[in-house]
Amino acid sequence: MDSRSRDQARPVLITDAQQSRIAEHNARRKRYTLTMGLRIVCLILAAIFYTTVWLMIVLVVLACVLPWMAVLIANDRPPKKAERVNRYGHPAPERALGTATDSGRIIDG
Predict the structure, then answer these.
(1) What confidence score (pLDDT) does residue 106 get?
(2) φ, ψ of residue 46 in degrees (nearest 5)
(3) Over the stretch 62-98, which tens digit does the pLDDT of each residue have?
(4) Residue 47: CA atoms inside 13 Å, Cβ hemisphere, count?
(5) How far is the CA of 64 from the CAs of 40, 68, 88, in angstroms?
(6) For residue 77, what pLDDT is reported?
(7) Three-class SS of residue 70?
(8) What's the rounded Cα separation, in Å, for the pair 91 and 20?
(9) CA-CA distance, 48 to 11, in Å (whole number)?
């Protein structure tokens, strides 16, 4: 049995199914909220460390870049799985059923 026919005979598992759109949207919304929460933390830390100028500047720049990153991260969808669809194909000759004329007898019903 070659690998192609073995792959076609393999059943598709339900655990391989993609997330529902609602679950995917909720996950993306959570990533956005966490990133924007990190931005607020950066702004608060910049206000606390205003005497250390270099640290304050780094935190402010990070707080300015985080909204852009949050949007990009939140809008990024997971990649689609590249799977071949199991389509109907002709059976292997040794598994094919014979016709009524192959056996030489016909059964009337």
Answers:
(1) 64
(2) -65, -35
(3) 999 999 998 888 887 776 666 665 555 666 766 666 6
(4) 5
(5) 10, 8, 55
(6) 73
(7) helix
(8) 35
(9) 58
